[in-house]
Structure prediction request, 350 residues.
Amino acid sequence: MKVLVTGGAGFIGSHTCLSLLEKGYEVVVIDSFVNSHKKSLKRVIDILKLNKNINNVNIEIMELDIRNENALDKLFFEYQSNGNSIDAVIHLAGLKSVKDSLLNPLTYWDVNVNGSINLLKVMNRYKCRTIVFSSSATIYGISSNESLKENAEIKPINPYGRNKVAIEDLLNDTFFSDKNEWKIANLRYFNPIGAHPSGIIGEDPMDVPNNVFPYITRVAAGILDKLTIFGNDWPTLDGTAIRDYIHVMDLAEGHIAALNKLIECDHQIMNINLGTGIATSVLELVETFERVNSIKVPFEFADRRLGDSCKVIADNSLALSFLAWSPKRDLEEMCVDGWKWQLLNPTGYK
Ligand code: UFG
Prediction:
């Protein structure tokens, strides 16, 4: 089975490629490399050779921007002509900074939405109609106090979130245009953190991180002075905001579970939360990181960050029952693995 992974060199992409290869899938990666590193996939190959004694790793890597429809068409054409067609797509390519999306909405709509339209057009042309899409819990917008079910209100509050909703809508319309053909999974990620336990691959933001976990690892490493915790006046036990952190390897395995489900099932479209369902405050995250790694993370409190929610937690019961998947790594492992990656790679992939 040959799977095309768009954006396969990024944080989630590299871990997902590793899981796919471990399960015996043939992998083709396309990536623009504007926000990722070629080295991440070389490292994926290293892990497989080290751990599994696999000499022939079945991965092909190409630099390709999903906005380039001709290049996408050529890619599908060449595989099909060689009798080696692409069977399914895991679509992770896209820009992902909420802050940046507010500053550059046109670029975000172009890359994320136009890129996805191109991909679907080409997939349709070559009758490749199985796709797993990286959606996000951000589409739920400001959440209530309850865990979020997949049928919760969709109310994104920034261009990045609206892009994700637009792509889900696009996939939905595509599915209903020909129900007999398409198999689609929209995976709504909560907060992926951590790294592969080897510390060989991990998250490497290009600039100063916006997200809390890579910020913590850089403060612990002495690269950044201190963490600013946005808000200690939220209506939570310790006053800091609550999220559902999920180990990136559990998230990667969620993609394989969704793909397997699509392969075995009839034509369908599914929206599925990928989270642990476990609530962790920012202070709890910092304290766990400090304790398991025996290292200090200096921090200060500041005002709430604009657009933040108090609590974003998954109801993951659909993933548990329908995908036969469950998250296996706890917060301590997320902190240990993420710190190992930082220690072994003080300058990321550079
Ligand atoms: N936070 C800090 N200090 C920081 C960064 C973050 O206190 O330097 C806090 C935030 O205020 C928030 C929590 O840590 O309360 C988590 O923030 P992140 O930026 O790590 O993650 P978000 O929940 O804001 O957003 C993330 C991704 C989105 C995705 C969303 C899904 O960045 O892309 O999860 O819920 F859509």
